[in-house]
Amino acid sequence: MADTHASTPLAIICGGGSFPAAVADAVAARGRRPVMFGIKGWAEAEVIGRYAHHWIAIGQAGRFFRLAKAENCREALFIGTVLRPPIKDLRLDWHTLRLMPRVVRFFRGGDDKLLSGVAGVAESGGLRVVGVKDVAPELFVPEGALGRHRPSERDQADIAHALKLIGALGPFDVGQAAVVADSHVIAVEAAEGTDHMLARIIELRGLGRVTSPSGVGVLVKAPKPGQDRRLDLPSIGPRTIELVAKAGLAGLAVTAGSTMIAEAERTISAADRAKVFVIGVREALAA
Amino acid sequence: MADTHASTPLAIICGGGSFPAAVADAVAARGRRPVMFGIKGWAEAEVIGRYAHHWIAIGQAGRFFRLAKAENCREALFIGTVLRPPIKDLRLDWHTLRLMPRVVRFFRGGDDKLLSGVAGVAESGGLRVVGVKDVAPELFVPEGALGRHRPSERDQADIAHALKLIGALGPFDVGQAAVVADSHVIAVEAAEGTDHMLARIIELRGLGRVTSPSGVGVLVKAPKPGQDRRLDLPSIGPRTIELVAKAGLAGLAVTAGSTMIAEAERTISAADRAKVFVIGVREALAA
Question: pTM here?
Fold first, then answer.
């Protein structure tokens, strides 16, 4: 089933960040033709421009379907962030969007509803939506420690605590990440994103409101239970390592096989230098 | 039982903020003598100084018991925040504290464990620990709307969603507050405190990462299920109203009978002016 259309070009709908390029590279390396559809305001020209590409605006589903058909695509994949500050002139588009009952309905809920809604629109246009895991499984964190450092027993207890917390938040479509230090929950991520949450810990530590000793505490990232794995996925990269180290944490744990890693080599060598661990854990721990 | 010692002076162990004064005023108004024990680094001299008072440092349990006995106190109450930035020279004390196995054990967990531990120490010294509710129930938000404004149906749905979320977080000793806008969880409070969380929403809105229209969304504060109600209590005041308005929220809901209100008149008139609602809701909604 997953390979039915593997010989057709893959439509990659691209948000921001470097992941679209990583996915396209992996797809091309397997001998499949990637066709990039950059979302205006989020996708980066230098990333999109390396392959056959088109630009689309949010709301231009008709244009996308027309172009995808012309490119002979049968499958589509979404990748990249659409959570960064929208470019000013894009705001008008968002207002326009609110007029459309279907799209507005997506917004009546968390990210999951929004993303599932977008996938539904794509599938209504005759394209099969696939996930990164279907086309580039090597972009995910595997099980086990990635670098030189390992979690201590206390770190492991903190990881287990955070995974349980994230599991409990699943029904609320929130919280793909949390920070736990010595069994104390220090931060829970909602709309702010992981980098912002880590910056908060750095700030709270400066204010004396986070008092755990340096080198204690873990960042844990895990997809929400029931999350559509074809769409929004947790990810880590060199910037994550930098903030984890500045926040005085011992390391970070992510669910193996479902968290993407950007620039894997740079990320792991940064972790080694900063003496923080990076580990892929089984999701079963979250249950 | 609650009134056994009501004729004896009440030892009020005071953290920061204005609540210690409000509690002392209410206790004195009932004809009972308050004896203030200001915690160095947190309690404010102008608050403590209005009644008979002593200064104690964290860790000086012996000194506290001696003084409380000399003042003929049989009951003690904790009030005020100990979460604000500790004064610089206090940091040494915290380090000293970590040497004491019992105290260190309190820190191996969230606030609940810390506070229950402190209560245990007080009770081991022969004092009965009472709560604000026992001595000044009028300082709590009652059920129903406090000002001129009322939550809409959408606001009510957001309130119910946030109460459920806070309930789900109970086992993790975290999250006395959350912000929900149109069923979307925008923020969950952990170590940062409510004011900091609201400031984050103001910032995320400026960055375009919180896109709910102004006037949509609620702040909900509720004690964690199982929380020792004699100790750490959620509270609101004029500053809360100011931040709720700046964050573009419709209003705030707190659990009736368990959330304290500072400077009630000023708080309510600020809410009326800012056109935000303030409502006390029954905790049963959280179940």
Answer: 0.75
